[in-house]
């Protein structure tokens, strides 16, 4: 069986690696050149895109910002999972907010800005602490502006007046005072079965994910259940098939959805060693209509992103239950180069292991790690 993935980054590569033991071959589409490539070497396979669509048993994405004409072309085959509407809901914050409201899922208060004059009402509606997000093409905190006073908003007015807000509106969102950021990944099968992974706790730095810990500390059954219910409501209402990520803000026992990603997600990489079935294998199973796998956890996991850095001691793989996943990309500032999965039998021992790991890493590239290791211990 073959699966065709639109997007040719590390997520496609990890789907390829997870699919191989099932006898499933994954090819990737470089969405900028519209060529079919090998997901590891990124070299063209020589197969035309239309032939690859024909050959595939299922077609999916690793990147929600796939140009719409490519999505529609793939959809004509009847083999695209998740469906186009789900992908667009993850790619466009206006559609995403409509989806959340329709399903009465708590999310951050917001206004849609499609004319600069609407900026006048922002502070009255949302307060002075506001985050503006471009409704399309944002990731890792790019395409965002934060203000904490009305004066800062005035200063941004000129910059916003240069944007084509009719075409790509802004979402003005109230800055939330959350306790922590968590995410829920789960999968929905073609026959409507929903299986969730354990909640992960996510530490960001400058709008970018640095460390995830799963299961979260202080996990209560009610919190996990609340998140699972949000997941099931969303996935079912979208008739979603595949793995879906839901980013959440936790305030006490309340959960607010920040955004969704209609694909496998960085905050689910811990499942590669920390779970009976990884998110990548689960996604392949779902889009092919195979039975979903168990999401039982194997101990407690941390996932540490390696960002903009190649200078670390690779002997870190000598620490028991520490695993390196390297993507083979050229280094750039803020670029995700790889990640490290660390497994232990308790949060305290996970903290100890992270302390061991720190010895192998240049800490300036891992600003969240030491604090997290201490917290877990
Ligand atoms: P991703 O790489 O996760 O797709 P993104 O660019 O789509 O990121 P968001 O997830 O919307 O952006 O925001 C990035 C981060 O900014 C969040 O993880 C959170 O730390 C912070 N943030 C976003 N919205 C809010 C908010 N309303 N209140 C407080 N913090 C926020
Ligand atoms: Mg996003
Ligand atoms: Mg996000």
Automatic annotation (TrEMBL):
Q: Which Pfam families match?
A: ATP-grasp (PF02222), PurK_C (PF17769), RS_preATP-grasp-like (PF22660)
The record's GO CC annotations read: cytosol
Q: To which pathway does this protein belong?
A: Purine metabolism; IMP biosynthesis via de novo pathway; 5-amino-1-(5-phospho-D-ribosyl)imidazole-4-carboxylate from 5-amino-1-(5-phospho-D-ribosyl)imidazole (N5-CAIR route): step 1/2
Q: Which UniProt keywords apply?
A: ATP-binding, Ligase, Nucleotide-binding, Purine biosynthesis
What EC number(s) would the UniProt record show? 6.3.4.18
**Residues noted as binding ATP in the record, renumbered to the chain:** 93, 133, 138-144, 181, 204, 258-259
- TM ranges are none
From which domain of life does this come? Answer: Bacteria
Asked if Nucleotide-binding is a keyword of the record, the answer is yes
Q: Which PROSITE patterns match?
A: ATP_GRASP
- What would you give as a GO molecular function for this chain, any one? metal ion binding
- Known Gene3D superfamilies for this protein? 3.40.50.20, ATP-grasp fold, A domain (3.30.1490.20), ATP-grasp fold, B domain (3.30.470.20)
Task: Provide the top EC class.
Answer: ligase
**Catalytic activity, per the record?**
5-amino-1-(5-phospho-beta-D-ribosyl)imidazole + hydrogencarbonate + ATP = 5-carboxyamino-1-(5-phospho-D-ribosyl)imidazole + ADP + phosphate + 2 H(+)
Per the UniProt entry, what is one GO biological process? Answer: 'de novo' IMP biosynthetic process
Describe the function of this protein: Catalyzes the ATP-dependent conversion of 5-aminoimidazole ribonucleotide (AIR) and HCO(3)- to N5-carboxyaminoimidazole ribonucleotide (N5-CAIR). Catalyzes the ATP-dependent conversion of 5-aminoimidazole ribonucleotide (AIR) and HCO(3)(-) to N5-carboxyaminoimidazole ribonucleotide (N5-CAIR).
Q: Which family does it belong to?
A: Belongs to the PurK/PurT family.
How this chain assembles, per its entry, is: Homodimer.
Q: What is this protein called?
A: N5-carboxyaminoimidazole ribonucleotide synthase
Organism, by scientific name, is: Brumicola pallidula DSM 14239 = ACAM 615
Q: Which gene encodes it?
A: purK
């Amino acid at each position: 069986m073959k699966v065709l993935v639109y997007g040719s980054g590390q997520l496609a590569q990890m789907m390829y690696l997870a699919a191989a033991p099932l006898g499933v071959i994954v090819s990737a589409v470089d969405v900028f050149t519209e060529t079919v490539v090998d997901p590891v070497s990124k070299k063209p396979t020589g197969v035309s895109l239309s032939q690859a669509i024909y050959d595939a048993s299922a077609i999916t994405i690793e990147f929600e910002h796939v140009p719409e004409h490519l999505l529609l072309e793939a959809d004509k085959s009847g083999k695209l999972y998740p469906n186009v509407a789900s992908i667009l809901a993850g790619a466009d914050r206006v559609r995403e907010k409509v989806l959340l409201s329709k399903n009465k899922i708590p999310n951050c208060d917001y206004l849609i800005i499609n004319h600069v004059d609407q900026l006048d009402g922002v502070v009255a509606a949302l307060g002075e602490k506001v985050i503006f997000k471009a409704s399309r093409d944002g990731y890792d905190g790019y395409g965002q502006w934060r203000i904490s006073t009305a004066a800062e908003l005035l200063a941004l007015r000129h910059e916003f007046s240069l944007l084509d807000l009719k075409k790509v509106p802004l979402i003005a969102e109230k800055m939330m005072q959350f306790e922590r950021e968590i995410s829920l990944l789960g999968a929905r099968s073609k026959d409507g079965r929903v299986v969730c992974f354990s909640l992960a706790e996510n530490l960001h730095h400058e709008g970018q994910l640095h460390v995830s810990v799963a299961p979260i500390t202080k996990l209560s059954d009610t919190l996990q259940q609340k998140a699972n219910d949000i997941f099931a409501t969303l996935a079912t209402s979208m008739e979603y098939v595949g793995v879906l990520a839901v980013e959440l803000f936790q305030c006490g026992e309340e959960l607010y959805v920040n955004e969704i990603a209609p694909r496998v997600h960085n905050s689910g990489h811990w499942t590669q060693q920390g779970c009976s079935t990884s998110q990548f294998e689960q996604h392949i199973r779902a889009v092919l209509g195979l039975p979903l796998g168990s999401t039982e956890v194997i101990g407690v996991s941390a996932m540490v992103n390696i960002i903009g850095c190649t200078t670390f001691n690779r002997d870190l793989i000598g620490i028991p239950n520490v695993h390196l996943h390297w993507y083979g990309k050229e280094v750039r500032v803020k670029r995700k180069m790889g990640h490290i999965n660390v497994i232990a039998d308790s949060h305290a021992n996970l903290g100890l292991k992270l302390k061991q790991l720190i010895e192998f890493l240049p800490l300036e590239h891992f600003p969240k790690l030491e604090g997290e290791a201490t917290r877990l211990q």
